[in-house]
Amino acid sequence: MEAIQAIMSRRSIRKYTPEDVSPEHERQLLEAAMAAPSAHNRQPWHFIVIRDRETLDGIPEFHGYSKMLKEAPLAIVVCGDTEVQTTDFWIHDCSAATENILIAANALGLGAVWLGVHPGKEVIENTRKHLGIPDHVVPLGIVSIGHPAAEKPPGDRYNEERVHRDKW
Ligand SMILES: Cc1cc2nc3c(=O)[nH]c(=O)nc-3n(C[C@H](O)[C@H](O)[C@H](O)COP(=O)(O)O)c2cc1C
Questions:
Q1: In testing the pocket of ligand 1, which one of 8, 10, 12, 63 has its CB within 8 Å of the most ligand atoms?
Q2: How many angstroms separate the CA atoms of 68 and 146, rounded?
Q3: CA of 11 to the centre of ligand 1 (A)
């Protein structure tokens, strides 16, 4: 799929078929994530790849908007290492990596949705506990991934009012 088409047709997909996501696709998603830009090229990200059913099913117990994980064969938790990127730039870096996963998933014919974790203090702590994440690493979000069981039309969000030319 062409890049602009992959960006413009991406939607949040929350329903999946029982089909597994192949290791080749998993690798491509992770490569896309790590191709993201990062401040000073620090690449402060870590990715927790979850396929274990119990671990996936445990997340909706503490994350209120993640029920689709009970159907998803795969999730990737995007985490930022605050010892590698000591300013808030880790948030930008990991967000860029997350968006790359979403676009790559769409380009590969997969369906995915970004589940926010940061900056919710309680959900961060619960995610840390659930996955054994160390204190200097912050889970930014979780990407739920599978083969789509739902189709959504591309949105048209272009809004000229949000475009400011030369000055505000
Ligand atoms: C930072 C962030 C956090 C989000 N958290 C959730 C979430 O917890 N659960 C969920 O179902 N969708 C979540 N979403 C997806 C949004 O609801 C979705 O992107 C938005 O409604 C626009 O729809 P679209 O992605 O289909 O274009 C999140 C998106 C972002 C960027």
A1: 12
A2: 10
A3: 9
Cβ-based neighbours of 140, under 8 Å, separated by 6 or more = 78, 79, 80, 90, 91, 94, 95, 98, 117, 118
**What are the pLDDT digits (tens) for 110-164?**
999 999 999 999 999 999 999 999 999 999 999 999 999 989 999 899 999 999 9
Superfamily of domain 13-152 in CATH is NADH Oxidase (3.40.109.10)
Question: How many angstroms separate the CA atoms of 30 and 156, rounded?
Answer: 28
Round to whole Å and give the CA distance between 82 and 105.
27
Collapsing DSSP states into helix, strand and coil, what is residue 49?
strand
Domain boundaries, the chain: 13-152
Residue in this structure with the two tokens 């912050």, named with its chain if needed = 138
Map tokens 């889970």 to a residue: 139
